[in-house]
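Form P-L/3: holo structure prediction, ligand 6-diazenyl-5-OXO-L-norleucine.
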Amino acid sequence: MQCRSAEELQLLVNEAKKSSNKGKVADYIPALQKANKDTLSISLFYPNGSCFSAGDIKENLTLQSISKVITLAIALNDRGEEYVFNRVGQEPTGDPFNSIAKLETNKPSKPLNPMINAGALAVTHMIEGSSVDERFKRILKLIQKLSGNESISYNKEVADSEFKTADLNRSLCYFLKEHGVIDEDVEQLIDLYTRQCAIELNCLDLSRIGCVLAMDGKDPYTEEQLIPSSVARICKTFMVTCGMYNASGEFAIEVGIPAKSGVSGGILGAVPGRFGIGIYGPALDEKGNSIAGMKLLKLMSEKYSLSMF
Ligand code: DON
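OUTPUT (holo model):
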């Protein structure tokens, strides 16, 4: 069964929204505190171009950790699988997204996967280009192509706010540098990473990105292969095993689709072969995932039989 109308979707949003008051807006990046905790919006985008939305889909969100899927795709393209996975692992951690613990206990010292902050910083380091600006433009360009929206840019206030407060991420970088996983100036890497995390779009843009991933990297309109299918497959696999951090196992059982969350409250979903999902609900649970967004996906998975398992 598939969603037949925006009204039908709105009923699910109304139900899921009730859980927003149990969550909390992210505050460790000061600029994110301004978000409206009660907001919940969603878009579904299908390969034939049809789309259903509910909630205020004009509201913008920053990608935050959702950007890690895109940077992984670029690094895999730039460097190949062997290079990337010699430096970043492929296993879930069971730890919070910004944990430093396993970097020390894991031998050789490399981040366990590209979806945690340590792994994502190592991946962003791998993106080719002669300057931060050039590397950032490459990330932005791919996001614009995937979403079919050339006006997407980044929110400077959010980027600056994170840059000023990113001392834990700086610590991760210095640890990675000490162990030879990265070899660039840490401030430069944090500059690029905080800009990538602050790329700003709406649910509709996000659902179109999800649709391209769902269709193995091919733009359903132009038929252009925007991401090689082998790379899209790796990205979706990480979304299943690590996309919702240390809630990924429970999410796989309860929802069962490749998805990636961000602390802004965004969730990118790709229902393989069917459609893309973009969600924005800034109230987070204790693991940093959108509380109402998770609930909404659970309701949708039950109603539309979305689980791939
Ligand atoms: O590096 C950070 O902490 C943020 N820019 C992104 C973290 C994030 O989105 C984790 N998601 N749930």
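COMMENT: The CA atoms of residues 64 and 197 lie 4 Å apart.
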